[in-house]
Each structure stands twice: as structure tokens, then as C-alpha cells.
Write a structure and sequence with these properties.
The structure holds 4 protein chains of 4 kinds.
Chain A lengths: L1 H17 L6 H24 L9 H18 L4 H23 L4 H21 L1 H4 L5 E2 L5 E4 L3 E4 L3 H23 L2 H11 L1 H5 L5 H27 L1 E2 L6 H14 L6 H19 L3 H15 L3 H18 L1
Antiparallel strand pairs in A: 1-4, 2-3
Chain B lengths: L1 H32 L6 H18 L4 H22 L9 H23 L15 E4 L2 E4 H23 L1 H11 L1 H6 L4 H23 L9 H16 L4 H21 L4 H15 L9
Chain D lengths: L9 E10 L2 E11 L5 E4 L6 H9 L6 E6 L2 E2 L5 H7 L1 E3 L12 H13 L13 H14 L14 H14 L4 E5 L7 H16 L4 E5 L3 H7 L2 E6 L2 E6 L1 H6 L1 H8 L5
Parallel strand pairs in D: 3-8, 3-9, 6-7, 7-8
Antiparallel strand pairs in D: 1-2, 1-4, 4-5, 9-10
The chains are: A mainly alpha, B mainly alpha, C alpha/beta, D alpha/beta.
Amino acid sequence: MLALRWIFWLTAAVLLLCIPLTGERFYIYLAIQVLVLALFAMGFNLLFGYTGLLSFGHAGFYAAGAYAAGLLLMRTPLSLLSSILGGALFAGALGAVIGFFCVRRTRIYFAMLTLAFGMMVYALAFDWRSVTGGDDGLIGIPRGALWLPGLGAVKMDALWAYYYLVLAITAAGVGVIHRVVHSPFGLVLQGIRENENRAAFAGVPVRRYRLAAFALSSFISGLAGAMVAPLENTVAPTVAHWTKSAAPVLATLLGGIHTFSGPMVGALLFYLIQEFIERLTEYWLLGFGLVLLILVLGFRGGVVGYYEAHLRPALWRRFS
Amino acid sequence: MLEQLFYQGMIGLSLAMFLWLVAAGLTLIFGVLGVLNFAHGSLYMLGAYLSYSAVRILGLDFWVGLAVGPLLVALAGGLMERFFIRRVYHIDEAYQLLLTFAFILIFADLVKWVWGPIYQSAPVPGALGGAIPIFGRPFPVYNLFVIALGPLVGLGLWFLLEKSWWGRTIRAAAADREMAAAIGVDVPRLFTAVFMFGSWLGGVGGALGIPIRTVSPGMAEDYIIQAFAVAVIGGLGNLKGAFFGSILIGLVNAYGHVYAPVFELAFMYILMAAILLVRPQGLFGTS
Amino acid sequence: MILRAESINTYYGASHVLRDVSLAVDRGEVVCLLGRNGVGKTTTLRSIMGLTPPRSGRIFLMERDISGLPPHQVARSGVGYVPDDRRVFPDLTVEENLELAHRFSGRQDGAWTLGKVLDLLPALRSLSPRRGRHLSGGEQKMLSIGRALMTNPSLLLLDEPSEGLSPLVVKGLVEIIRTIREEKVTILMADQNLKFSRLVADRAYILEKGAVQHAGTLDEIYADEEIVRRYLAI
Amino acid sequence: MTGAGHPDLLRTEGLRKHFGEVRAVDGVDLDLKEGVLTAVIGPNGAGKTTFINLLSGNLFPDAGRIFFLGEEITRLPVHLRVRRGLGRSFQITNVFPQLTVSRNIQLPLLSCLGTAWRFWKAVDASEEIHRRTEMILAEAGLEEKAHLPACILSHGDQRLLEVGIALAAKPRLILLDEPTAGMNPAERSRILKLIADLSAARRTTFVLIEHDMDVVFSLAQQIVVLHQGRILARGTPSVIREDARVRDIYLGGEIA
């Protein structure tokens, strides 16, 4: 059984490393999109799947990371990697401040509160022209070069080069989340999700843990956003709009909220479905709506959840 | 200066009354069924498009369109409740929110598919055309009509809920579903009816807007957030709160537009967050 | 036989609350479920009402199988329900609480009308414009009983009628239950107050750990020291 | 009923909690010694559950004070009471349903060892946690089920697990709210044995709320009878059994 898991991860790693070999800009670009959404959804799911809090304002942190990274690249001499990290740290700090307020509420009130704060970020991005460029957004963000010890400045102009950077950062981000959710801290978060009252009776200061999860989740979401600024060379306020917050929600539900790899698998499916539907019709939102309906009504565990509950036991029986 | 203030106030009030019509249905449905319907803005949009079609495409009279569109919206709402939302009453609220969110996506594309992505509008009905001067500036008669209609709808709702047996049944079932069932109320059917009625209200809001507000596929996304802000500020499930919350948000938007354009958008969300933090029961709710 | 329950088993989640409970109530009787807290009395009544449907077993009302019916249909078939925690509609006035029940029962041609209920429960008469949430506990209890009567039930389920009432009010309650009985309403009640039950009920089932342990007349039970100590006293 | 442990394990002074006109708890003065297993009984509406909620911190009193190990805890939040050694179980089963049985136990262990904030180590890395989890699972008789998610356990096993969770927080005192509710006889005797063994080994002091008199009289060293929010009687089981007032309230004395 363990072997099966390793085969999966190894195959995924090899495939991911090989994508630039296709030489197709389209595939590389799509792969970057998938990776960014995967990381965004992983960050989101730290809060939703692991802590039990549905945020409808995570686009705010994604955008905060993107704007901050963009501004650092445009206005400071910081290198590419430092700017991306800086963007993520800014989003994390913002998350700590906003989270301080949001974790005072739970359930639907939490969802509404995150929605309000997320839209505040949007409003600020839209209206604070002198810093954010208003509705045009930041334009002309340089991608810069990557400083590597021993190698010096590595040019990132080629899309494939930037792809490997995104892949490395995403892998690192996912690695961090993996360690965190399997740590005592992660166990406590799951306990809070399962039964808040019981967790308090296990000696857990519930609110403080929720805040920590919120900040970390914002940091990861910001990291995902920060990678987009140098990719697109521009950031517009729409990345902060609440409808953007729906993307990680959909990806997570598609893949499975109570599984570790669910959001990543979901991010891949998200773009595959979108590509597939777009070839048939321009109305891909309709397709997503129907998929979401089916997921909520019948498959709340998502694809990975379904695999773990039904397919894996079947495979296990077959091969043992 | 004072004239400007008053004129913007009137603009704000007419904004507010549209908001109130959306928020009223949202609030009623949440108050009785306990479901926060993310797709309520889409029902508002659907009301606008259906009435627009009745007027522009079928060539019906504006008032006939106003009657027909919302009725079809009510039907759509009824189907939504009967076949989908009913199945998630017993599960986590997060999934209720997500289920209704699915309908935003579906309605958004359906509308684009049927009516196309471009902006639409319909002519102001003859009797309400033109403008009358207010402090020397022309103010559309239709907006005055809307300003007058909002409180009337509020009064009607109050009467329906407080004074009719249907309203009493709703209040009883909202407070205690089990005991309502135990005296013979068919609660599932009642809930479908309430959902339809709430949807109808949203549809009326949309239909009323077609002469003066652009009808576009993006309107659902904007309206639902404003309606959420209104509902939260008034206290989720509180109709009286939603009425005054609408006025507050309408005025904030109208004055913000003129006096503090930098914060115009943000102010509504700041208000919403502040209420959720300080008075989650809303301005008019009792804890 | 107005009510017959045949080995019903009811669960709350994984918790097995009723174990093969069977009981029968004849027309015109007052039957009591006795037992300490938490033995399954309330769950038995809720199971009959369809509020917590049993996972197995059958329930017959006047020889008609009502197991699996939704509660509003059970109510319309002639079962009135007075919960232990009263649960009057807080937002409605006393009169509205009563009228509402009358409208939905589908049995408006029965003997109970607003006037008659207010005659039986005179304390409610002067309170009739007051909202349910502003009544005292005892007043709410009376209203809850009145509300159930307004559905013109053939069978009245009364959960813990004497709980939390002052001795004086309990004495009044004895009279009320006797009057209801004279109006040919059959009553199945749950109570843990043996002395009160003895004044109003003919027979009793004693429950313990979710199962019927003993059945008999109240006088017989009252006289049996061993049973009283084992199931009712401490 | 002589207790050798802390003489002032838990003490309440004039504890009061009203809900509107309902006087759920109406001036309770109680002191409990370490090592004495106490049962709190009383007819419906006597205020037992409110009383336990006040002790555990789920509710705060309107008036009165609570002391635990000599320290005032009247308004202390739940998790800090737990850290000081005051645990509880619930009337309705209350576990972490999707987590495995051993994770259910590990969570309070980590939390009370103060290592739960470690976010860079695997849960399984600590030998001590592992050892203590095994020990508690063995006590609760759940070793075989350690790797199953809690939600698929039988009702009785879930209740045992709940006691296990409470034990993992190393409590000096555990409040048990109807530990045997909804159990079949075999499950009942297992949980009673667990409570009796732990109590005898002086690992922890139990206070239980229970309706089942078999349970009360087979376990309790002291019985407190609540009635209408007040303590009506208090004493050894044999004293309580003979108390005429207690017998009266259970059978409905006021109406005779």
C-alpha cells in the first residue's frame, strides 16, 4: 500500500520535471497555473479542511502577495526570490492582523467576516491609485533574475526557467504544509475542526490555534499570489475580488477537503475541466457549477476522498 | 452644498430601495430556513433578464413584464429548494453556502448563454418617465417611484408576517420546526413556499431595475455582496434590520461616491466587518 | 386499542436508546410511562410522534400503521404532543398559538374549540394577547397542553406534565387531566412523579435502560416496595 | 469516606445560575476531597447539568465562587481549567469523530505536555507520547481499535474513548456526565470497571452525574442530592438510601 503511494508521488514528480521538455509554451504556462492554484488551494485548505473554517476572502491574501511582490520587484533592488518571499510574508502578516479579528467568529459568521475583509483588500487595490495603480493595477513588473549561491544571477526570462522556480517554490510550500499538518500542531487543528468544545477540554486554547492556522494559511496563499506577479508582469485588482476566492474552494472540493493531496489533485482537475469544457463551449462556469452541485450533494470527499474510501480498498484487495 | 447633500441623499435612497428588495428575500430565507443563499443575487439578475425579455423581446407592457418575470424566478427558486437545498439542511453550513454558490456559476453562464454577455436595458414606462427638479437638478420620476415603493413592500411584508395566518405559521416554524410539525404543519412544503416567496422578492427587485440600471451577467456578483453587507448590518434574519441596513448602505455609497471616492468601496465592507465583530446580531437584533 | 407499539428500537446516532419497547393503550385510558431520568420515556413519545423515527418496530394508531409517517401526518391522524420543555411558539400570542394548532390539525370539527380550551385552562384567558416568550414556565406548560388539545387529538402524548411545577399547580393539573379524560381523549404520559401519576393514570409501564421492565396498574406498582425501590426511588 | 489526597480538591461557595426565572443552580456550597468518588443525583430539572457546566467552565455563574486545589477558577476559561487538572466527559458522546482512536488520545496528551505548538515535528516522533497513548488505550481496553477512526466505534467504545481523552489530560478530577447512557449491559460493566479501577488506584477523583441507581450505588462513596438547584442531602450511599426526604422527592413528595 505504501508502495502505491510512492509510485504516485514519483510519477507525479517525474511528470512535473518533464513538462518543459515538451517545449510548448502553452503547456508550460498551464502547468504554472496549476502549480500556483495547487499551492493557493493547499493554503486555503489548511483553514477549511484542517481547521474547519470556510474563508471566502482568501483572494485578499493571494492578491496581497501578488501586489507586494510586484511592488518589491518594481521599486526595490530586491531579487526575484526575496521579492516573492517578501510578498508572502506581507500576506502572512496581513493574515495575522485580519485573522486576529476573524477567528472571533465561526461558521457562517466567519465566512461573512472573511468575505468582508477580502473585499476590503479589493476595494483598497481598486481605489488606492497612488500605490496600486487603481483599476489598471501594477504594470510592467520585471521578472528579474534569480540569485543562486555559486551560480550568481540566473536569468528567468525563459518561461521554462521560471517554471522550475515555481515548481521548486510550490514543492517547498507543500513540504512545509505536509510537515505542519502531520505535527502536533496539525493534530490540534484537526481536533478543533472535529470538535471545538472537546478540544478546549483537551486543554487547547482554541482561538490562538485558529489564528496561527489563519496566518500560515494567508502566508501560503500569498506565496502562491506572489509567484503570479513576475509571471504575468502585471497585477490587477480582479485577483482580489471575491469570485477569485472561489477558485481554491472549487479545487479543494474537487480533490477532497479531508485529504492532504486533495487540493493539488483538485487544482489539476480544475484546469483540465476548464480546458475540456472550453473546447466544447465557452460556458465553462456552467460546467463548474454542475460539478460543484454534484460534489456537494453526493461526493463531499472529493476525488481523492473517494479514492481513499472506495478505490484504494478495492485495489488493496485485488493486489494482496 | 446643502442641495448637493440632499440630492445625493435621494440618489442614495433609491439605491437603498433596490438593495432592500434583494436583501429582504435573502433575509427572509435565512430567518426561516437558516440557509444563507449565495445565489440570491442571481435570482435578482434572473428577474431582471426575464422581465427585460418580456418587455423588449415579447413586446409586453412594462407592468406585465414586472408581474411575469418575478413569478418565473419564484418557480426557479422553488425548484432549487425542492431538489437541491432541501438535501443540505442537515449538514454543515459551509456546504449550504457552497451549494448555493454553485447556482451563481450556473445562473451566470445560463444568462450569458441565453441573453449574451452585453449590457441590456429597457425603456422607462411612460407614466413614470421624465424628471422633476429637486433643488434645481432634475431627479428621475422613476427613482421617486422606487423610493416610494420600498417602504410599501416593507409594510406589506410586515403585515404578511405579523397579521396573516401564513405569516404566523412561518414565524412558528422558524422558531421551532419540530413543534410546528407536531401540530400538523407540513414544514417541508412551507419551506419551499417561503423560498419561492423570497426568490420572488429578489426577482421583483431585479425587474424593477431594468429601466434605470444596466442588466448584465456580472450584476449578480455585485449585488449579492451588497445584499450580504445589508443583511449582516441589519442582523442576519432580521427584516427590520435589513430595511434600515439598506438605507445605511445606500446613503454610504451615494455620499462616499462624492465625498470620499477613495474609500467608497471599502467603507461598506468596513461597516460589515465592524458589525460582525462588535454586534454579530446586527444593528437591530437582540442577542 | 388506540395505540400499539411493537418492539420499537430507536437510536440517537450510535446510541441505542430504546430497546424493543412494546406497549398498548386502550381507548379512554390514561397510561403512564414511569422511570427515572434518561430511561427513554421522552424518546418513546418522540418515536410515536415521528420526531425520532424508530429504526425498527411498528406503531399502530387505531390499527393503522403510522410508523415512518412524518410528524405532521401523525399529528393530523389524531395525535397531540406536549413536549417536556413546553416549546410554545415564542413569537406568537397565546391565542395565536392555540388558533394555529386548530387550523392545521384538519380536525376542526372535534369537540375542542378556543372557548372550550380556555374554559379548561382559565389562566390562559387573561393572557391571550401575550406572546409565548413572555409567559412563566407554568403558563407555558398550560399553553402547551392547550395547543395540543386544539388539534383535537384522539391520543394525547404528555411528556413530564408535573415537572418543575409548584405543588399547587400540580394539583390543578390533576383536575385538568381528569377533565380531558372525561372528554374521551386517551392519554399516554411520561412522568417520574409516582404520587402524581397515581392520581391520574390507570396503568403504567416502567422503563429502565431503554426497555420496558414492568407493566401493571398504578396501585399495584405503588404497593410493590421492591419495584418502587428498583426503578423509581433510589 | 476518608480522603488521603488534597483536602480541598474542589470547593464551591454560594454558586448560583439562573436562566430567566428558572433557578437552575441556587446557592450551592460543596467541597470535595481528593480520592472520594462522588455521585450527584436528583430528579429532572434539579440543576445537575448546569452545576457540572459551571464547574467545567462551559457556563459562568451569576454569583458564587469555585476553587480548585485552593485556587479560584470561577471565571477561568475551559482550557486553563483542564491544564490545572479538571477534566470532564459529556452526556452526549463527544470525541473527535474523524480522527483515529490513538490520535484522539494523543491530542490532549500533547496539549497538556505543552508540546502541541510544535509544528515542525511529526506527532509520532515522541517516544513518551507513544508510551502514554498505549497505556491509556490499554486502560480503556481500546488497543485493538487504535487505528480506527473514532466514528466507526460502537457507542460503548466511544464513551470509553471519551473517558480516555479526559484521562490523557492527566486530570486530578474528572466530571462524568451520565457515562453509561445508551449503553448495553456488557459496555456498561466495562466502563464501570474502568472507573472503579482508576478510582481505586487513586489515579484520579471522579464526580459523576448519573440516573442509573445501580451505577450510583455500585460506585459512589459519597452521594450529593440536588433538588431545585440546591443540595438537599449529602452523605454515604447507605445514609442517602434511608433519607426520607430524598425518597420523597424521587417519588413526587410535594403532592401527597
